Amino acid sequence: MSDSDDTDHDDTDSDRTARETPTDPTANPADEQAFTVTPYAVEGTIDYEKLLERFGAEPLTADRVERFPDHPAIRRGFFYAGRDVDRYLEAAESGDPHAIVTGRGPSGPMHLGHVLPLYLAKHLQRETGATVYVPLSDDEKFLAKEGSFEAIGEHTRDNLRDILAVGFDPERTRIVVDTADADLIYPLAVRLAEYLTPATVEAVYGQQGTVGLQFYPAVQAAHLLLPQLVAGRQPTLVPVAIDQDPHVRVCRDVAAKESLPVEKPGALLGRFLPSLEGPGKMSSSGDAPSIGLADDPETVAETIRDHAYTGGRATLEEHREKGGDPSVDVLFQYLRYCFEPDDDLERIAERYRAGDLLSGELKAIAIERITDFLAAHQRRRGKLDELATELEPYRLTDAERRRALERAGVPSILG
Amino acid sequence: MSDSDDTDHDDTDSDRTARETPTDPTANPADEQAFTVTPYAVEGTIDYEKLLERFGAEPLTADRVERFPDHPAIRRGFFYAGRDVDRYLEAAESGDPHAIVTGRGPSGPMHLGHVLPLYLAKHLQRETGATVYVPLSDDEKFLAKEGSFEAIGEHTRDNLRDILAVGFDPERTRIVVDTADADLIYPLAVRLAEYLTPATVEAVYGQQGTVGLQFYPAVQAAHLLLPQLVAGRQPTLVPVAIDQDPHVRVCRDVAAKESLPVEKPGALLGRFLPSLEGPGKMSSSGDAPSIGLADDPETVAETIRDHAYTGGRATLEEHREKGGDPSVDVLFQYLRYCFEPDDDLERIAERYRAGDLLSGELKAIAIERITDFLAAHQRRRGKLDELATELEPYRLTDAERRRALERAGVPSILG
Description:
Rossmann fold, 7-stranded mixed beta sheet, 20 helices, aminoacyl-trna synthetase (chains A, B), ATP-binding (chains A, B), EC 6.1.1.2 (chains A, B)
């Protein structure tokens, strides 16, 4: 029995997970037909409320939103659900230890969509002192055949510079790379693998092509429990797009085992930041255009002008007459959730709906906000020294590693 | 394609393995009924010649035996088969690099049967300069639920002292503990896991209870390829009881992948050293009595007197008249394969068969040989200083770790 303040009842988190996977015979077929959301497939028009119900997560009520440090992604409903959010908020409010885990799979250069959760984490860290853990799963990217270890190593080093450029507080931030921190991650994963059967992994993740991918959920569980293993039992929030919720639930089931001195990690569940070309997930792989963190202002402007899906009308006359639709305009979503912090947003929406603001003008606003954001990011990144030196203050110390292994019941063989 | 001097033809090693597992529908039922030999079950009366045929290994011909450094376990047929033995012998004869891997699963104190392969490896090292790798799979023992990590850690430290007491040459010996050397072992295992499908693992090892055990064959493949990854392509011999051959074959298939700069590890396949109480495997788990490495002479004598299965007759008169049967006498097997190096053996056998030598007298000879052996082992063990200090010269250096990771195509992220 877990002694965590649990909101779940008879069935475990991943029991519920199993019912949501397309292969599960108990899934409601009518429901499934409407849309599919798993960590590996997002299809159909997503009904976020129905998804919440299907996943059994808590809505992010107005009261909860109010208790978070102010941030557009929370205030304006990009993150709209969660698990054990109250526990996190209580700790944040009372100054007790609390943590955020927000990882990165280094399969390529990072784009805008990848870095925004890191900036949110930095904001929460600054406001309430949250410890932030950033695990990089180079092992998983190799196993998922997204490149050789050499190529993934290149991406990892590049991504690390972007993560460092975010400007986390080194005292309260730990960055972990699975292969470079294998001395810690592997023994922890073996310890947690005790609780992960092949059947559970297959139910949540589907059939895996290699035994490495089958094992990886144990590594991911180690990531999500790391703050508690290093620094003791504490609420941990994992901000992810809602399609990644099954990963969190697998770890929650592992965390509930009585012999682990941890509580279940919570989740902050988000909508999908739409691809530039329209609804769906923003992706750095494939052909979907995206805004890279290294893009210069001209490239950003060109990418947005050429590819951004707008809520504008077919002709200028029609737009002036009927007005645009901000709810489907991709750039408006960007402004809404990330880049337009003050009351300008409502004015922009109104003028767009009224036909006073044209799509091109909305694009120009977004281009300005995004290039400003990127310029600041690139400036910080440009100032970074040699990677290993910069990373050092963010790596787990030997004492922290030892403590984590001891808490997990995997004390070092040689002391 | 592997460029190793391969004796295998169309099918891969583990294709053949699959046919030998009890769950495989293509196994010959008549053959299966006679006896079963898998890494997890040895049943029935073993026909070693038939087993050889079934496994598709090479017999250890008189010519091969002649080319090995003289040792009773080889000369007298305890090791009676192998894979790619000629390649190993060629390198040993011509002074080219060659290696032996002989591991230990630290699930309890070591007994006599566990340490004998290590003494064989030491002998081969002394005679031809073989590099010896000794991996300790504490991860696997935890995953196989043979104890908590704390308990397995205790056994690991205890077993390490016994391994150190063998007296390997530190210049040519590397001892590896999976959790303590995870910085190296985990990235290598991930690299090799690329080639291990769940189906392969299940065919060879059966269904596994956790994803950790499913992943473990990748760790074991890392063990067997370690000498080549550290020091370059070279023949590697893995001396194991024949029931462990499937482990070697899985690794041979992995090694055959063209992107790995290694050749398939070879095997030296042995009979089972019988349990004191009779045919079957000697085991430190369960209730079977065994001779522990820490036993004092009185305990050894008592254990042998009370439990050793003899080839003697029911009564003294009958024994004098009909003679004993050395071929089923457990202590005679011990003397034959390990402890009676010179021509005394044949005389002992003759006198036993003739009824001149009584079971009790044979026991007395064995007790003397075994206690002498243990006394020398215990003396060396007793001289050891603090474990970490003693182990240090046997651990992989940072340069060796880096080289192994580079050869495997897993260069360190941070240089």
